[in-house]
Amino acid sequence: xxxxxxxxxxxxxxxxxxxxxxxxxxxxxxxxxxxxxxxxxxxxxxxxxxxxxxxxxxxxxxxxxxxxxxxxxxxxxxxxxxxxxxxxxxxxxxxxxxxxxxxxxxxxxxxxxxxxxxxxxxxxxxxxxxxxxxxxxxxxxxxxxxxxxxxxxxxxxxxxxxxxxxxxxxxxxxxxxxxxxxxxxxxxxxx
Length: 191
Known about the structure:
- The strands form two sheets. A seven-stranded parallel beta sheet has the order 4-3-2-7-5-8-6, with helices on both faces. Strands 1-9 form a two-stranded antiparallel ribbon.
- The two termini are 24 Å apart.
- The chain has seven helices and nine strands.
- By secondary structure, the chain is of the alpha/beta class.
């Protein structure tokens, strides 16, 4: 069965970056999410974050992390709405209350191929640690789990590249099943 792709301009996407280690990955997530029109980035767990107006970290540590994030964010941390909430379960509870569907990006036996997934209009996409991904306890918080099928020999993509592919797919397309009439026209175009 063929699938049609249509642009969806009404979709609200929140990206949740949970337990990301690298400041450079965090900066790249800011830049990519902002460029793709994601509504908000939530940094949870031990994910590093830019300086805030009510900073609680030691000044030299906050400055160092902010500088490293800024190196790859290139100012996106100033134009994309973001917040830091350490507790992932709290984030998920708040978003479910606002009718967001919680979707984990992870290779799992319950995963749906991203190209087969019909994204809702309010979606919160959770990405996990660069090495270990999302843990079983974190996947239990998700309504759906999606994955990007690997075509080569490597087992996974870098967290930023995988997130970029998923955000692009979610931001721009919704999957719709073509009718048999539409399929027939594709296979037998008229002159």
